[in-house]
Design goal:
With 351 residues, the chain is an alpha/beta fold. Among the domains are: 2-33 and 72-102 and 226-297, 3-Layer(bba) Sandwich (FAD/NAD(P)-binding domain), CATH 3.50.50; 117-224, FAD/NAD(P)-binding domain (3-Layer(bba) Sandwich), CATH 3.50.50. The protein is built from nine helices and 23 strands. The protein has helices at 11-20, 43-46, 53-56, 60-63, 113-129, 140-152, 176-188, 279-297, 333-348, and strands at 2-7, 26-32, 36-38, 57-59, 68-71, 76-77, 81-83, 88-90, 93-96, 100-101, 132-136, 160-164, 192-194, 199-203, 206-209, 214-216, 219-222, 227-228, 251-254, 259-266, 312-315, 321-325, 328-331. The chain has a six-stranded mixed β-sheet with strand order 5-2-1-9-20-19, covered by helices on one side. A four-stranded parallel β-sheet has the order 13-12-11-17, with helices on one face. Strand 11, helix 6 (140-152) and strand 12 form a beta-alpha-beta unit. Helix 1 (11-20) runs parallel beside helix 8. The two termini are 28 Å apart. The relative contact order is 0.15. Bound molecules: flavin-adenine dinucleotide. Flavin-adenine dinucleotide binds next to helix 1, strand 2, helix 2 and helix 8.
Length: 351
């Protein structure tokens, strides 16, 4: 029996654990700071419909049948073991899927499922009371969040929303047509979009920008920047933005000592692969890692991974959105529904 340790139970880690545990030759340990898997893209909807949280979360112990699950923080790894406060787990293969952090309430670490549900409800209550909402960041998260709030409160028209974005268009890395459609949609719903301005501080319900603008808010959402969860990973394995260096087979490399680890893989947001950090990419990585690990076991040649532009679906509430693939952009009801379908299809896999 080979011991496989998987760190992180997000898109990549949960997928890999569930698939590999079917193999009787593997003895698997999943170590995650959380005791559940969560479909992160669905979290924005839970802020307006807190009950939706139930549909996008599942305990690791509910969908894993054979794996050992440790709800702990990995503090250190070596080339032989993963170390938590209570355990030293030896491995033949290690797969690092520790992902990335984002501001609360969108992504949270170190939580049991019940605490997470309470946090979401608390944020929902704040949102219910708030009249003036400022969203810092007009990337995908900020835009989708605005879409959810508009959709939910459209009858009452009770929310004044301002987006502050440091670029000259929303979701600046996406297709221009996506930004144009989204801007038109948000403006139609009276969202105030401030471009080319950066929020410098957001204390005491007051946002101050780099152009000396001050905006009062009842509620502020910070929708900017992701941080790799790499504190426990040896520095030599990381690039200068703290992502794990991997080769085309997802094997980790120690670039300082010119060393390639055959039996240590990484997948998902934590990797140094130059592409959008997306859930769907994390799952594609996961599939590749599974394949390569099995090929390695059989002494066969590994399969290289090529990053690519992939389909993106951006929701603007339940019934509107944008579908984008390279130069093709489709807007309206279909992408809105498609986003819900993707969520359902992902979660059904874990039920
Ligand atoms: C609000 C929001 C909306 C998004 N919407 C979309 C979308 O619509 N479509 C899309 O494709 N992508 C979307 N993304 C991006 C997507 O969520 C990420 O790309 C995806 O979560 C990456 O998956 P992962 O498995 O690499 O890591 P993660 O999902 O980040 O999972 C990592 C896991 O590792 C655990 N962990 C971290 N450190 C440790 C440690 N030291 N020890 C043990 N466990 C640890 C974490 O708690 C977590 O459970 C969105 C992101 C956000 C924040």
């Amino acid at each position: 029996m080979k011991n496989i340790v998987i760190i992180g139970g997000g898109f990549a880690g949960a997928y890999i654990t569930k698939k590999l545990e079917k193999n009787k030759d593997f003895n698997i340990t999943l170590i995650d700071t959380k005791n559940y898997y969560e479909f992160t893209p669905g979290i924005l909807r839970t802020l307006v419909y807190p009950k939706h949280a139930k549909k996008i979360q599942i305990l690791h112990t509910n969908y894993l049948k054979k794996s050992r699950v440790l709800v702990e923080h990995v503090r250190k790894i070596t080339d032989k073991e993963a170390i938590t406060n209570n355990h030293k787990v030896k491995f033949d293969y290690l797969i690092i899927c520790s992902g990335s952090s984002y501001n609360a309430p969108f992504k949270e670490k170190d939580l049991i499922n019940l605490t997470r549900t309470k946090h979401i409800r608390d944020y929902h209550e704040e949102l219910e009371k708030a009249k003036r909402i400022v969203i810092i960041g007009g990337g995908i998260v900020g835009t989708e969040l605005t879409g959810e709030v508009i959709d939910f409160y459209k009858k009452e028209k009770s929310k004044e929303i301002t987006i502050i974005h440091k670029h000259d268009k929303l979701m600046e890395r996406n297709n221009k047509k996506t930004a144009k459609y989204t801007e038109k949609f948000l403006k139609k719903h009276n969202v105030n979009i401030i471009y080319n301005e950066k929020a410098l501080s957001y204390k005491n319900n007051l946002v101050k920008t780099d152009k000396n603008r001050e905006i009062k808010a009842d509620l502020i959402f910070l929708c900017t920047g992701i941080t790799p969860n790499s504190e426990f990973i040896p520095k030599n394995w990381l690039n200068n933005t703290n992502q794990v260096n991997v080769n085309e087979f997802f094997q980790v490399s120690d670039n300082k000592n010119n060393k390639q680890y055959k039996n240590i893989f990484a997948a998902g947001d934590i990797t140094s692969i130059k592409e959008e950090k997306l859930a769907q990419n994390a799952e594609i990585h996961a599939k590749h890692v599974i394949k390569n690990l099995k090929l390695l076991e059989n002494n066969q040649e590994l399969k290289p991974y090529r990053p690519d532009k992939r389909i993106m679906v951006i929701s603007l509430g339940k019934f509107n959105g944008v579908f984008e693939y390279k130069n093709l952009v489709i807007t309206g009801l279909f992408p809105g529904l498609l986003k819900s379908l993707i969520e359902w299809k992902t979660m059904i896999r874990y039920k």
